[in-house]
């Protein structure tokens, strides 16, 4: 079950870093515009260089996390394929691979929310059993 939760956490971390990257790019554009004005007056490019170095490091971190996410996701999808009950498989896929809330899933699958929570608990037990038996 930890691998399922970790996939969601990893996805959130990637999304946060992508947001940070977007903000950094905006900042770089602003700094670049200021640098052009400052170059005319003869000042240094240190702010722009530092921000660019940070952006490059951030890009590398995002790439590494995406690679890790893809590997983990593939393992989880392989384990989900071994679950016989379509409801369990679909529920776990929606929850952990797609990142939907149980409320969203209950509407999508046309199940009562309380029933879906119980189904989720059972699906997690089956998932753990499958992972343990297949050594995924």
Search tags:
136 residues, mainly alpha, 0% strand, 5 helices, 87% helix
Structural overview:
- With 136 residues, this protein is mainly alpha-helical.
- The chain is built from 5 helices and no strands.
- The protein has helices at 2-41, 46-81, 86-97, 102-109, 113-134.
- α1 packs antiparallel against α2, α2 (46-81) packs antiparallel against α3 (86-97) and α3 (86-97) crosses α5 (113-134).
- The protein is elongated, with a radius of gyration of 22 Å.
- The two termini are 12 Å apart.
Order of helices and strands: HHHHH
- Major pleated sheet: none
Helix content: over 70%
Q: How many beta strands in the DSSP annotation?
A: 0
Mean pLDDT over the residues: 89
Question: Total number of helical segments?
Answer: 5
Regions with pLDDT < 50 over 5+ consecutive residues? none
Strand composition percent = under 5%
Radius of gyration from the alpha-carbon trace, in angstroms: 22 Å
Supply the helix-strand structural class. Answer: mainly alpha
Q: Kindly, what is the distance between the CA atoms of the first and last residues, rounded to a whole number of angstroms?
A: 12 Å
Shape: elongated
Please specify the SSE layout and strand pairing.
Elements: H1 2-41, H2 46-81, H3 86-97, H4 102-109, H5 113-134
Helix pairs in contact: 1-2, 2-3, 3-5
In short:
The protein has 136 residues and is mainly alpha-helical. The chain contains five helices and no strands. Helix 2 runs antiparallel to helix 3 (86-97).
